[in-house]
Design brief:
It is a single chain. The protein is built from 1 helix and 16 strands. It has 197 residues and is mainly beta. Strand 2 and strand 3 form a beta hairpin.
Length: 197
């Protein structure tokens, strides 16, 4: 059986991984919104995802750990905090957590839009902090040394702590669209190549 080489192309703000024979089978990752903070909320950390009628309403509801973005024809508020807090006028879509905590001099909160057609896959990589996922459509599979996890449309997944090698793929029969939500050490590279053992 012939092994296919994988080609990784880095474009500012965009990561694509594909095989030469199937360049259309690309898994793409694009930063949607981010901010740096000096500290994290106390207690267990959860990502709360809400939708709002307007960007102004979402901005008004966003606290110091909230990020507002427009995507998929909707206005989203992604907010880091405690579980069960009121959506402040928005509609609660999901609550993901608790997230593994990290200690850093400064933190980066980032939301990425990601996905691709069935069969597309990222390279094996790590992040210096925690990652969580919310699947908009399709099915996401995450492979780590801890095992394999699959989530489909409308479901969430809490990733492992910092520096855990992972590979993410579009494993369903439809195109994967997902949000990846990060709490990472802003003083370290956001993503680093790794190996799964």
């Amino acid at each position: 059986m012939m092994k296919r080489k994988l080609i990784a192309a880095l474009v500012p703000g965009l990561f694509i991984l594909s095989s030469p024979a199937t360049a259309q089978q690309a898994f793409s990752v694009k930063p949607l919104v981010e901010k740096k903070v000096a500290e994290l909320p106390a207690g267990d950390l959860f990502w709360r995802i809400d939708t709002f009628e307007s960007k102004d309403q979402a901005q008004a509801a966003a606290g110091p750990f909230g990020l507002v973005a427009e995507s998929e024809g909707k206005v989203w508020l992604f907010e880091l905090g405690r579980a069960g807090e009121d959506p402040k006028g928005g509609k609660r879509v999901a609550e993901i957590g608790p997230l593994p905590r990290i200690n850093a001099a400064q933190y980066l909160l980032r939301i990425n839009e990601a996905g691709g057609p069935p069969g597309s896959v990222t390279s094996v990589h790590t992040h210096p902090g925690s990652e969580a996922f919310y699947v908009l459509s399709g099915e996401l599979t995450q492979k780590t040394p801890h095992g394999v996890a699959r989530v489909s449309s409308g479901q969430t997944l809490v990733g492992h702590g910092g520096d855990v090698p992972m590979e993410v793929s579009s494993s369903g029969s439809a195109e994967l669209k997902e949000f990846a939500l990060f709490v990472v050490d802003s003083t370290k590279p956001f993503s680093s190549p790794a190996h799964l053992h």
